């Protein structure tokens, strides 16, 4: 049975003398079967500091691996900008039966504001694992 896998993103930064950048991607890896979708969204859990992400983009990290969804980055549907309510979500199309098998590298380019209000960017690369 097809399901939606939610991946939550969180970044908090400060410019103290020994500044700290905390990045959280949960889960780091997801396992996909035919018909599954992935939803990347901002994490606003009460146990975390303020989420400083302003926008993010899902990218195919290595063009060698076959992308498991019918729409491939850099399509604009893979970019989310934080809305007035503080949310931002990207949802993939359903994984088709002709999708890739095994680990598929993808990247997240994230724009965030530090505590001085300066916009900064970073790139991280978790994995999708396609089981079917």
Q: Describe it for me?
A:
It contains no helices and 10 strands. It starts with a strand and ends with a strand. It has one domain: Immunoglobulin-like (Sandwich), CATH 2.60.40. The protein has strands spanning 4-14, 20-26, 29-32, 37-42, 53-60, 79-81, 89-91, 102-113, 119-124, 127-130. 0% of the residues lie in helices and 48% in strands. The strands form 2 sheets. Strands 3, 5, 6, 8, 9 and 10 form a 6-stranded mixed β-sheet that branches. Strands 2-1-4-7 form a 4-stranded mixed β-sheet, with no helix packed on it. By secondary structure, it is mostly beta strands.
> How much strand?
over 45%
Share of residues in helices? under 10%
Order of helices and strands: EEEEEEEEEE
CATH topology, what is it called?
Immunoglobulin-like
From the coordinates shown, what is the CATH architecture?
Sandwich
Q: Give the total of beta strands.
A: 10
Q: Tell me the radius of gyration.
A: 15 Å
Mean pLDDT: 85
- Number of individual domains: 1
Q: What's a concise summary of this model?
A:
This protein is mainly beta and about 130 residues long. The protein has strands at about 5-15, 20-25, 30, 35-40, 55-60, 80, 90, 100-115, 120-125, 125-130.
What structural keywords apply?
mainly beta; Immunoglobulin-like; six-stranded mixed beta sheet; four-stranded mixed beta sheet
